[in-house]
Amino acid sequence: MVKYMLNHQLDLMFQALSDPSRRSMVERLCRGPASVSELAKPLAMSLPAVVQHLQVLEKSGLVSTSKQGRTRTCQIEPVALRTAEQWITERRTSWERKLDRLGDFLEEER
Amino acid sequence: MVKYMLNHQLDLMFQALSDPSRRSMVERLCRGPASVSELAKPLAMSLPAVVQHLQVLEKSGLVSTSKQGRTRTCQIEPVALRTAEQWITERRTSWERKLDRLGDFLEEER
């Protein structure tokens, strides 16, 4: 069940990161929290479009938002970002270990 | 232009990684090259469906394939995997630096 949930979270996170506007929103939020309008400012799109991208990011767990009065503040969720990173890192290091073993084997064969 | 191409490649790579079957294919290929039927064996899907997923991975640059006789061999492209990883790592470390600076600031304020 835990594995299924992690798998599903990875689906949503990589899906969220597959769009350049959403990546630029993640990039902005890694420099600190921002309101929705601050997030929208550098993007050439309507506010509703920004909100839609924000919902994808929120659903993936990469971003959380909280509302105070009329302002919604968005912030990055570093643990989720780390989860996506770790999945790739583990695959890459497994490939590098494989390559090291192959190197050792060829060295011994000489 | 280079930035646009990298951005587009990131779109395709994260999109490719957003599916659990494609992630398990990447996982398998990180342990060494495999034929299409070897890749298909642990997956509960038809061969044409596997080929379709493989095409998404190939288009993203994460996997390359070569044909010898009737056998198509698939292998991981570690540089592409590293590009996707690096994008996340850079964002995460930028967030951590921000947090460190905040910590220093609060320390000085005391």
How helical, in percent, are the residues of chain A?
Answer: over 70%
Assembly state here? homodimer
Shape of chain A: elongated
Distance between the termini of chain A: 48 Å
Q: Largest beta sheet of chain A: what is the strand line-up?
A: 1-3-2
The CATH architecture of one domain in chain A would be Orthogonal Bundle
Top-tier CATH class of one domain in chain A: Mainly Alpha
Query: Secondary-structure element sequence of chain A?
Result: HHEHHEEH
Organism (chains A, B): Lentzea tibetensis
InterPro entries (chains A, B): ArsR-like_HTH (IPR011991), HTH_ArsR_DNA-bd_dom (IPR001845), WH-like_DNA-bd_sf (IPR036388), WH_DNA-bd_sf (IPR036390)
Protein name (chains A, B): Winged helix-turn-helix transcriptional regulator
GO molecular function (chains A, B): DNA-binding transcription factor activity
Describe this structure in words.
Two copies of one chain form a homodimer. The first copy, chain A, has a three-stranded antiparallel beta sheet. In chain A, about 25% of the residues are buried. In chain A, helix 1 (about 1-15) packs antiparallel against helix 4. Chain A has five helices and three strands; from the N terminus they run ααβααββα. Chain A is about 70% helix and about 15% strand. Chain A is elongated and about 70 Å long. In chain A, a hairpin with a 2-residue loop joins strand 2 and strand 3 (about 70-75). With about 110 residues, chain A is an alpha+beta fold. Chain A has a domain at about 1-75: Winged helix-like DNA-binding domain superfamily/Winged helix DNA-binding domain (Arc Repressor Mutant, subunit A), CATH 1.10.10.10. The mean pLDDT of chain A is about 90. The interface between A and B is medium-sized, with 32 and 32 residues.
